[in-house]
Amino acid sequence: MSRYNALCSSTSSIDLNNLSPIQVFIRIKPNNSNDPYEIIPFEYSSKNTILTLPNSRSLSFDNVFPPQSTQHDIFESIIPLLHLPLYGYNSTIFAYGQTNSGKTYTMLGPDGKLCLADDLMGIIPRTSRYLFAAIHKLTSSSPSIQYQVRVSYLEVYNGHVYDLVRKNDNKSNNKSHSLSIRADNQGNINVTDAVEIPVHNSFELENILMLGNQRRATAFTYMNSSSSRSHALLIIWIERRERSTSSLSREYTSYLGRLNLIDLAGSEDISRSKAEGDRFREAVTINTELLQLRRVLDALSTSSSYIPYRDSTLTRLLQSSLSTTQSITILISHISSLNIDLSETLSTLKYSQIAKCVQRTSIPVQKLCKNIDTSDVMFGDYNDPVQCFYRRTVYIHTPSYGKIFARLAGYRYDEQQKCILLIHGSGPENSSMYWNDFVRRLLLATSSSSSLSPYYFVAIDCPGYGRSDGNKQTIRSYPGAFIQEIIDCISPTTHKVYCLIGSSQGAAAVFNALIDKPAISSFIAVQDPVSHDPQRFVCIKQPALLMYDIDDDGHPVSVGRLVKKYIPNNHYYEFASSKQRNWLEHNAHLKLLQLFNEYDTNSNTKNVSSLQLTASSKIPLPSLLACESVAGGIISYLSSYNREPLYENSKKELESILSAYENQSVQNDDLFVEKVEAEKIEDDESKAQRLTTELAQTQCDLCNQHISSSHISKSLRLPDCRHLLCYSCCCETIKLNSYECPVVGCATKLNIPSSQLSVYSLPFSSDNENHVIIQFGNSCKSTSSSSQRYEYTAYVKCKTKNAIDSVSFDINPEYPKSAIRVSKAPYELVRIMNSEFTCDFIIQWSKAWNWPKLRITYYVQNKQDSFTRNLLVRVLNQGNTMVKSQKPRQEVVYNWADRDRTKPNINYVVLSYD
Ligand SMILES: Nc1ncnc2c1ncn2[C@@H]1O[C@H](COP(=O)(O)OP(=O)(O)OP(=O)(O)O)[C@@H](O)[C@H]1O
């Protein structure tokens, strides 16, 4: 690694202007002393950029590597391109040339294999070491920068793309499964379903290479004993995350760079390679694909308006790498020094010259986006300025509510210590992560380099949220019982905590829990009030910190003021986020500590003596309680994950930790490492049994209707989950979202062309059916160029006259009385807000229809355009007269709270009757 450290001294200096879109290097393979053939007398200029042929013709390239060049020489010349993906650009290095010319030698190492011996190692393993050394260097000098690296390894074999690292995707295996290539809306070419494996160091990347190379198609030919029969493409995705150093916000800017390392199969003179049978077919495909590649280079070099990328799988796959607007590329052309190969050599040189003529049309751009970190459960841990925060993640095994995921922070040495329990709100993506910054501020304010904080923190994912089991309704319906059970688990003898903190729905839960169980906490603190009947709170006697934002329409301050009126011992703060944007960040933790100081004279000193640190003291990890198990994997529990040193330097440490934990019943829920699903192998007997049962099925799994024998063959059996969808109505539903089984919502892999998707293609043909089509969504516009506030208009529309009686817009679904009802068109809600918000639409249908109410859960989006969804609302098998005579259900819920816009924009819902 040290050698690579030394190489990567100037990682930040990138000058795109000096890099031509395709640089062309020539590498000449040394002849073997046993070769009986004549040698071509090439000549080279002193600077190694001119190659002179025996006929005295001189060709100019960016680099010419004579036969005696080493692997290190080649690698040094590509280093400038390796810096690009570290800053969000794309770069590509590919090896080109006739069979047996040394392409795999350059990319991987000798004899067509990955080689890790220092001198012979090819570009790919060197790149892997170089990149991680560069990342280490960049992140050690700037703590606000993080890198995440993912890897895909693919091959193009006989015109199809295969995943070299996904289980089952082995061509020799009957379950072969080729992948499709798609362009995203920015024109980037991606391989659908390609596995992207997160890697944290060069060791892990090399393991992936080894696995992939074992699966790559190679074979003996008369020209190369280990000839590549496929083009191999290693994609290294490098995401650079930059967090603001001044703020502890979860927002970060990310740049996504991509490095493509490609080892093409070689063109082959079939009369010389004597390829027959499969080898012959492979050689024909390879030659045809390389011909298409040459055509693409030709078109690029003449700046043609049409570039025939689509003519072969290979060129389609390389489109982003060859496009001068998307990537900077090095083509390493390999030629032989033997006279017998002259005609192939001249052809390779001809196309290398053509590639060299490709002109830049524009400078590639960095891929940049703003993100909120929601995936990283240990967010902030590796940026903690104080190392002793003792953050870790566990599951608390509750007797009645299942496994509850919790983030713990602070050193818990005994039960007398002051435990602060935090309950998050009901936002669709809410979880214990919500409290990360707040907890960090409290820890920073109460610990120092010589003493640990006297508080420890337990932030839970409420049931059904984040990574916890259960039903989201639990925290609303049984706040007292649930919170008491959590407290019993974490404080099994005292059955209480020092302070209970809640936000939004979590605040309501804290109030309600204290009404039910007054002794569970000594203090309470809440922000963003939602609660009903606050007059009930007169019985809450604890000192209470109440913090409310008067600009937050989703949590009306009027409710907060009522809470203040009834809680006797309140410490109340109002602020306006439009004027004091960071009030909570700057004040919440200080107000809480003030409250503790005021009522607890020992608040900051009690027990601290046992937490004194000396320079050399190494405090052991707090042990797990009986009801807890490690979540997120042992590595993440014990150390900040994603750090190379753990693998490189601390193997011993890790081993001792693992042996210490060996006897604990550790759950292997490794949240941070992509789990490769265990292969499900079905033996012949169980397959036969399954087929018999499937053949006997005559009922649709979705609508439960009988499928007539004439229709059974047209019905659809989903490939993975094996659910059966009837031909008459339910088959169509899969068109709405061909990635999800409509019965249980698991993944399916049906390819349905988007042209077939339309709300009118939905099933509503039955005579006995009533239906209407509605549209809903929201628009969003900035209130002024300087302000952070946006005017959101959420709406519901329906073309059928008089179908809708009224629409209630419920921006606080957890609070029963918060809906705003609109009883004539346009059915709209206009709100000026700082950020996106949840809003349920409750549609009350025409009174004459007697249809059940429909609640659509929705997430109002901050997109500068209008965001529309279409929904076919169906009432099956009910003529209007029948409908009138039945009692409708209170409400049918359609869950479309789609923050990531991943759901289909059309769908249908069936309103059913009890
Ligand atoms: N620069 C070199 N020095 C020494 N040996 C080399 C060199 N280049 C290639 N070789 C050897 O030549 C043989 C063929 O090389 P390699 O398999 O890399 O060719 P290739 O172009 O990838 O062939 P194919 O297209 O058929 O896969 C291998 O045994 C390799 O070790």
Automatic annotation (TrEMBL):
Location within or outside the cell: Cytoplasm, Cytoskeleton
Family per similarity comment: Belongs to the TRAFAC class myosin-kinesin ATPase superfamily. Kinesin family.
Descriptive protein name: Kinesin-like protein
InterPro entries according to UniProt: AB_hydrolase_1 (IPR000073), AB_hydrolase_fold (IPR029058), Kinesin-like_fam (IPR027640), Kinesin_motor_CS (IPR019821), Kinesin_motor_dom (IPR001752), Kinesin_motor_dom_sf (IPR036961), P-loop_NTPase (IPR027417), Znf_RING (IPR001841)
Pfam families: Abhydrolase_6, Kinesin
Gene3D superfamilies tied to this protein: alpha/beta hydrolase, Kinesin motor domain
Gene Ontology molecular function, alphabetical: ATP binding; microtubule binding; microtubule motor activity; zinc ion binding
Presence of keyword ATP-binding: yes
GO BP terms in the entry: microtubule-based movement; mitotic spindle organization; spindle elongation
RING-type domain span: 700-743
PANTHER family in the cross-refs: CHROMOSOME-ASSOCIATED KINESIN KIF4A-RELATED
Record lineage: Eukaryota, Metazoa, Spiralia, Gnathifera, Rotifera
PROSITE patterns in alphabetical order: KINESIN_MOTOR_1, KINESIN_MOTOR_2, ZF_RING_2
Highest taxon listed in the record's lineage: Eukaryota
Residues making up the signal peptide according to the UniProt record: none
Organism field: Rotaria magnacalcarata
Keyword entries, A-Z: ATP-binding, Coiled coil, Cytoplasm, Cytoskeleton, Metal-binding, Microtubule, Motor protein, Nucleotide-binding, Zinc, Zinc-finger
The keyword Signal belongs to this UniProt entry's keyword annotation: no
